Amino acid sequence: MKFKVAEDVDAPVGFVFERMMDFSQFEADIRGRGADLRRVDNWTRAEKGVRWRGSVQVRGKMRGIEAELDEVIRDEMVAIQITVGGMEARYQMTFIALSAQVTRVAAELDLKPRTLTARLIIQTMKLARGRVLQRMTGTLARQGNQIEADWRRGAQG
Predict the structure, then answer these.
(1) pLDDT above 90 for 77
(2) How many angstroms separate the CA atoms of 124 and 127, rounded?
(3) Is the dihedral of CA 15, 141, 66, 80 positive or negative?
C-alpha cells in the first residue's frame, strides 16, 4: 500500500535537502509521540547505512522498529528502509527544484505486510487513508514551514 504527499517549500533545493537530512527534529517528534527510537552507533552524519532501533506503539501494542538510511542522492532523494512488527516499509523523499528559490518535496510511504497482524493493520489504514494522508501532509507542511522560516532568517541575517 502506498501513500504519497508533496509540499512546495520556498527555499533552494540544497538548503531544503540539508535541513531534511537533520534527523534530530524527526527523532524528537517520534519520541514526543511515545516511541523509543535510538541511533545505532551514535552516528552524527546522516549517510547511507546509518540505522535506528527502538519500539513504537501500533494499534495499542509496543512493537520493535528498525530503520536504515538505504539510499542518499544529494539534493535529489533519500530513502529509509523500515521494519516494524511484521511490516516492512520504505519511506522516500524526493527533492525537485521548481525554481532557484522553490523546492517540491515529495514523500512516499510504501507498506508491505509480512504477517497476518500486519495485513490487518494495513486493512485498517486503507479505511483511514484520508486521515493517514492528512497526517503525512501536516508533518511535511510543518517541516517545510520551519525550513522556510530558517531560510528567511538566514537570507536576511
Answers:
(1) yes
(2) 5
(3) negative
